[in-house]
Amino acid sequence: MSVLEKLVGKFIVIEGLEGAGKSTAIEYIKSWLLAQGVTEQQIALTREPGGTVLAEKMREIVKMDIDGEQLADKAELLIMYAARVQLVEHKIKPALAKNKVVIGDRHNWSSLAYQGGGRGIDLELINEIKQVALGDFKADFTLFLDIEPELGLARARGRGELDRIERLAIDFFNRSRAIFQQLVVDEPSAVSIDASESFTQVEAAIHCQLDRWAASL
Ligand code: Z5A
């Protein structure tokens, strides 16, 4: 079987803190896929929360600042999973069934990192919700862009106003980062990339890891 035949129908996810360079990395993954012979039409991009009309509405809710009413932590968690189910059922699974390669800007690990590590919701509870919502569905390959929160937020700030979640304290992001770092150690189909490096170095590291993964398929 050729590398191209092995790649189609795969779900590649990019995870990391804000400003880690996920959007930038998606362009590197795309260019790598095109170099392997995957066509533009065979590539589907998703982002979480969001990616379908209803899931984008849910994204607006979690990003919203409302005077006098805070989104409860568990409500935030459940909205993340509601949005994820919409996306997986209506976009990701159908695309994979059509033999597309799906590149996800965040997926399940973000809930474990932010709502688990950051907010302090029990990770076992999150895993149970994940199981109810998505069953055994998961990424085929995860690239975790690791960055110090200070540097990531400085990059994100360079783009303009920070949203509700981005304004949280550095400790929140350190706890989230620690969960990401543990998840990548525990998951054989995931790798960590040093995202504090230059554009060129991050691109080279991503392409190298994708080569290794493809060779293992
Ligand atoms: N969230 C959650 O809590 N639970 C969940 O389950 C899920 C999400 C799924 C989504 O926000 C928010 O939802 C997020 C987590 C939470 N909360 N926060 N805060 P989003 O989608 O708006 O934000 P994001 O996912 O964090 O994306 P981002 O801020 O756009 O970051 P990015 O995509 O990783 O970075 P980028 O846009 O590629 O790069 C940022 C800037 O850095 C940009 O100007 C680049 O040109 C620059 N950059 C990138 N790479 C480099 C290098 N190597 N050197 C120098 N500069 C660089």
Could you outline the blueprint of secondary structure elements for this entry?
Blueprint: H1 3-7, E1 11-16, H2 22-35, E2 43-47, H3 53-63, H4 73-97, E3 101-105, H5 108-118, H6 123-134, E4 141-146, H7 149-157, H8 170-186, E5 190-194, H9 199-216
Bound molecules: ligand Z5A.
Provide a compact summary of the structure:
The chain is α/β, with parallel strands linked by helices and 217 residues long. The chain is built from 9 helices and 5 strands; from the N terminus they run αβαβααβααβααβα.
What can you see in these coordinates?
With 217 residues, the chain is α/β, with parallel strands linked by helices. The protein has one domain: P-loop containing nucleotide triphosphate hydrolases (Rossmann fold). Helix content is 56%, strand content 12%. It contains 9 helices and 5 strands, in the order αβαβααβααβααβα. A 5-stranded parallel sheet has the order 2-3-1-4-5, with helices on both faces. The mean pLDDT is 95. Ligand Z5A binds next to helix 2, helix 5, helix 7 and helix 9.
